[in-house]
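Figure-free illustration: sequence to structure, shown twice.
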Amino acid sequence: MMKTLIALLSAQVQSAFAAAGFADAAVTVSVSSRPDLCEFQCNGAMPLAKIHRKAPLAIAQEVVAQLASCAVFSEVSAVAPGFINLRVSPAVLSQHLEALRVADKFAAPSPAPRRVVLDYGGPNVAKPLHIGHLRSAIIGESIKRIYRYFGDTVIGDVHLGDWGLQMGLIITALQERQPELPYFDESYAGEYPADAPFTITELEEIYPAASAKSKIDADFAARAHAATYKLQNGVRGYTALWLHIMRVSVADLKKNYENLHVSFDIWMGESDAQPYIAPMLADMEAKGVLTQSEGAQVISVAREDDREELPPCILVKRDGATLYATTDLATLVQRMEDFSPDKVLYLTDKRQSLHFEQVFRAARIAGIVPESTVLQHIGFGTMNGKDGKPFKTREGGVMRLERLISEITQFIAQKIADNQTVSDGGKTAGIIAIAALKYGDLSNLATKDYVFDMERFASFEGNTGPYLLYTIVRIKSILARCGDYAHLQICEADNPAQKALQLTLAQLPEQLQASYRDSAPHVLCAYGYDLAVAVNKFYHETRILSEPDEAKKQSYIALIALAKRALETCIDLLGFEAPDKM
């Protein structure tokens, strides 16, 4: 794979520094923040001033003198207090883009591809997906796609909440409603029914009702705890009911995740980690890392250099019950056995950051995970309403994800109907809605809270997902009238808008690498928007299909075709697609 443009320019400037007598300079070229003054900039002269007892401007001028005959740059200048301003040669830029155009991928694969387990689901079975599940799913799906683009093997795990008291509550509530079911007859020896005794709608009503009842009915709560114990100890009828709950819930979860264009490679849950808990605790005890504290079993994870006191990681409570930390550590044991990952990445609400810090430290202390395996938690902020508080339904409840998607789809479908732009408004509206929803989320730094604004997210103008789609559709409409354009080549820019678009396209490999390095989809959102702006400016200021000069026309077509492919790569990595018309 060829060098990125920044690497190429940096190498040229580094050579010029060395030729001027400054071989000790650490030189990098960056995109200029003032495109009206220059395209690229280097401030390598600044840190050399004290070392060489020279004014930085004088150093910069000596370097510029070495670059005067360099064919890579069309313009080089030194400006106070010691910056080097650069403009790249149109010929070099067009050659670079032509190489990018014919390349299979826009960025070189990782030299050391990793095996990554990505935990980005976390829904509870028997409960509908709600907006609290949105960010982990959207961010995780994008990171998975970015990692895979660079050659990593990624195992996406939904990690279901499928164990514990919630199951006992459902089973106990079901026994009250349908006591005649064979699952509750301990003497029953036949085959249990193949079909579940409830629908997903009924199941989603049973759990919250049972949870509420357990808070006011001590006898019901006690029976739910007993049912949980029986399930976890393999009582046949309860196990059969649990399997029904799992099948019905997972089928519904898969349908809703598919609507969001999110998929998982494995559908494991807390129940899968249960067999690992007892051996893990025994191993910890044998190693002497598990200690007693007020009747509980804990691992001390505090360090001398901690700025704030970190409490011990509790694994077994005084009453013998295990906790989330226990399950998460046992899940790590399982993941190391099953996948031997180089990295395990978790995506949850940022309020769980303390929990994961404790779990990660405990995993190292107990020898569950070697030092070579990276453990990372990306804690994301909340999606808020315009009032700055966590987003709710108009009735004040937590909104189901299904409803959120439906509402934004209907909003966009109405816009399409008003504009009379396409005939298949339903299908197109669905595609645009997912783009609006995902881009609205991903364009923010993951750790920050953001305001969900349907009107802004769904706008076809500005920094939005629909604007990127609109740009792609515009290019598609032009290319549809061009016949076979795959062989057309990109030539030197002959107008400012064309060169600006070329320069923006040339940044794509670096932006892809940055999104991979930092696990940061928002980098691709920002780049995709800049590219869409550059495309539309070029479109408005340049005759493309009506250009009389055939060579120029062909170069324009090749350029926008490359821009289309670049934008489609970005949105695919962000987790959405473009329609054919808008």
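We now fold a second protein in the same way, so the two outputs can be compared directly.
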Amino acid sequence: MEALVEAMSSSTHWCISGMESNLEEINLKKNLDILARRWPVAAAVFGSSLGLAAVGASMQKPAFTATGDLLFEVDRTSTILQGDLDQVQSFNEQASPLNTQSVILQSNPIIEEAIARLELSDEDGNPLPPIVIRNNLEIEAVMGTDVLRVGYNSDNADLAANVVNAVMQAYIENNITENRSGTRAAREFISGQLPLSEQEVNQAAEALRRFRTENNIVSLKEESTRVVNLISKLDGQIADIQSQMMDSAARVEELRSKAGFDSQKAVLISNLNKSEGVQEVLRQYQAAQQQLSSARNTYTEASPQVSALKREKASLQALLTSRVIEVAGPNAGSIDFGMLQIGDLQQELAGSMAQLEVNRLGLQEQLRSLMESREAYRSQASRIPSLETRQQELQRKLTAAQETYENLLSSLQEIRVTENQTIGNARIIQAATAPEEASLKRRNLLLAAGAFLGLSMGVATALLVDILDRSLKTISDVKGKFGYPLVGLIPKYATLGSSAQLNADGVSPRIIVANAPRSIINESYQMLRANLKFLSSDKELQSLVITSSVPGEGKSEVSANLAAAMAQVGRRVLVVDADMRNPSQHHLWGLTNRAGLSNVIVGQEKFKNAVQNVTPRLSVLTAGVVPPNPLALLDSKRMAQLIERFAEQYDCVIFDTPPLAGMADAAVLGKMVDGLLLVTQPCVVDGNSANSAKTILERSAPNILGIVANGVNLKHTPEGYSYYGKEGEYHDPLPKKLERAFSLSGQKKH
């Protein structure tokens, strides 16, 4: 899917790119066509501009140009301060430093110094304004070098050389002064910065010392290693103690099962057995108890002896209890007097259990202490990264402050050496000399500017004239305006002499088909004839009206030449001059116009008497007498009858009618015939006239066969409209008899 999307995207991009390329090519071709049509206008503007430039150049006084060269370089004989001095800039890496120096060379202080050196003044004796020198000063960088070429134009050769040398010398001195002043300013600045930098070093060092003191740090790396080792050692000790505690607990459990009491009682019993006070009272108590038993065997319970012994026993019991409480504490209540005297085995077990309990408590205390120590060291270890980060930050500040201080000290030493030097970063490698010959550069520039301006204005004027010209300039414009198909294209051609002059056969030279049957003009009319035949393949055209939008488009010549072309292929053709307002067919054919169409319509003359035969196959019916209302004659039943009669006698009848502009003759007559041809000539008909003609045709709705483009300049015509390789030209009519020409042409099979 991704591959399909990518392919579609690539295809779309290719199509868009192709369309943009085609549009650019079409626009360029269109502009070139406009220039080809309007070249006289463009040439006139170009010639005028160039002529004015030539006049201006001829009025220029001879100018002498003197030049000198300045080399910019870095002084490498001493250590230069790394910083803001002008002389440390590299001039061979990029053009901007040279451009900067070029601006300085043209500055007012430099030029004013040069003017003062040369004591240049105006007519009033005042120092010459710097702008006068600057306007004639030329400074350019020599390509690929660190050299600026300084030039000056003047009508005085010596003055030109002196100005160049004075400007360069003023710049050199100014450069040295600026360098020294810059060095001095840098020294003062560094001297002021040194105490501040030293203070920053001291503050950074004190902050680092205080940090180490507050955190008891000698070496964070060693401290980190020591703490890790201590934590590891404590972990081992804690593990050992935990192991000992587990072993002691196991032994206590074993002894408890043998002795029958737990470790706490064992501790109490062991303490009571070891107490002399408790054991002494216990022995007295046991003796009193034995005496009481013996006395009871001898005396009664109420006897004084038994009563005294009972009191003694109770007293000893109370004393024993007191002594046990003193030794055992709050746990004395859980002690039976019988446990105060146990056997040696039990006493040994109790002692062992008591000792184990004491050891357990000791191990427990050691474990607590070790774990507290381990937690303390772990807390200390967790603080080490933050302490290390803080120490590194303070150390970086101290290092940066020390480096800045050292750099300032070093720069101060270097700048003191530089301050004492008197060299700059530029030197004159070639002084200007007075030129021997005047320079033509200004004249050439003026001529070049005039030519460029003339060319630009000529092209712009040609395009503007073409835009303002409302005429339809190309075949594409004509087709776009009318919307009818193009059925014929007649190239533009020229003839010797006036079109009113007739040749030896009495025919106008504009009838090329008759005069030059093998010319490309004849081929054009033959192509028109063939196209008309293809348009009426179902029914052959017998009558057609030929008209145009406006006068001057050549409709009468097209009518005559088309009729001649049809006659050449053996058809019987009648040319009817239906333009009774401005008849012209009798002029083209060298005929008389005593009687014609108007006379035949009103019945003043018979058709057979009015028609005139040019050849056996070509006849002409002239317009006749000009009537007061030609449209009324054409739009009559008599005219319709004549058309039917013409169609019976001839294979094709061609009506030459008035233009459509303001007249309805062609539209009315077009409804009576088989079709209408609209002759149009680019650059003659305008848009408004074309719209009016199209409106008339749409209202009358004749059978419009198409457009015949007449007088087309093939050099300005796209290749798609014509197969002709060059413009058709005709200069010399062939010395042949018309009838012979037509008979020869008629033998060809078309």
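Summary for the second example: DSSP finds 24 helices and twelve strands in the chain.
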